Amino acid sequence: MEIRGKVIVVTGGASGIGKAMAERFHREGAKGVVVADLNGQGAEAVAHDIGGIAVQADVTREEDVVRVVRAAEQTFGPIDLFCSNAGISVRDADLENAASTADAGWTLGWGVNVMAHVYAARAVLPSMIARRQGYFLNTISAAGLLSQIGSAVYSTTKHAAVGFAEHLAIAHKEHGIGVSVLCPQAVDTPMLGGARGSQSVDGVLSPEAVAQCVIEGLEAETFLILPHPQVVEYMRRKTADYDRWLKGMVRLRRSVFDGERG
């Protein structure tokens, strides 16, 4: 997919990967970029710098996602690329109990990390199907392909997000609609919050480096966009011998938590 001349929506666009993507899409010649974020002022700042528009939105509310889509269509025209980028991490309440997080944490994680993708698809699929073209870029995480030590909510919801993206790709390929999932490990964003846990074992990338990977992945129209290429080998090990992989993750968990305690 070529970015030049395209109408693009980026959720979670006020900071981090979303901000870097919005800025890069503008430099690549996008027709218009809509920056949506719960942080309305942050979205306004990014949109101002790139000549786009900002929409304050809570992606866990379907009506907010619909409002973002309507704003994009009214300002620039039909959406070519919807980047469902907003995400949230919820740490286990008790690191020694995988089921310790309260329902509120699970509900929030499910709403941001899964249902926001569903709401985006509901809002733009009819137009894309009618035009026989369109593209979804869903920011997920390597945790959706592997796991996330210390967060059952994050790991579970990110796996579910990959599952929905797979279904989206399978169901709508014949409609001319493309799907990619962005699955980095550690990225230097507010979500990382200075933490250097299991996700940072292969280094921490800048949001701009991830945006470059996005451009390359969209051009190639690959389903998996992996800024940390090591993830491919980890996936192979997981599927080749699940029990061995789980044992390795137990060892990694122990080393991470020992490091935090030390």
Percent helix among the residues?
40-55%
Structural class: alpha/beta
Quaternary structure state of the chains depicted:
single chain
Rg over C-alpha atoms, rounded to the nearest angstrom: 18 Å
* CATH class wording: Alpha Beta
Choose one word for the global shape.
Answer: globular
Order of helices and strands: EHEHEHEHEHEHEHH
The total of helices stands at 8
Number of domains: 1
**CATH fold assignment:** Rossmann fold
How are the strands of the largest sheet arranged?
3-2-1-4-5-6-7
Biggest β-sheet: count, sense, barrel? 7 strands, parallel
Mean pLDDT, all residues: 95
Which homologous superfamily in CATH is the superfamily? Answer: NAD(P)-binding Rossmann-like Domain
**Spatial gap, N to C terminus:** 47 Å
Strand content: 5-15%
What can be said about this structure in brief?
Helix content is 50%, strand content 13%. It has helices spanning 16-27, 40-50, 62-75, 103-131, 152-172, 207-220, 230-240, 242-261, and strands at residues 7-11, 32-37, 53-56, 81-84, 134-139, 177-182, 224-225.
Plain-language structure description:
The protein is α/β, with parallel strands linked by helices and 262 residues long. It has one domain (7-233): NAD(P)-binding Rossmann-like Domain (Rossmann fold, 3-Layer(aba) Sandwich), CATH 3.40.50.720. The protein is 50% helix and 13% strand. The protein is built from 8 helices and 7 strands, in the order E-H-E-H-E-H-E-H-E-H-E-H-E-H-H. The protein has helices spanning 16-27, 40-50, 62-75, 103-131, 152-172, 207-220, 230-240, 242-261; strands at residues 7-11, 32-37, 53-56, 81-84, 134-139, 177-182, 224-225. A 7-stranded parallel β-sheet has the order 3-2-1-4-5-6-7, with helices on both faces. Helix 5 (152-172) links the parallel strand 5 (134-139) and strand 6. Helix 3 packs parallel to helix 4 and helix 7 packs across helix 8. The mean pLDDT is 95.
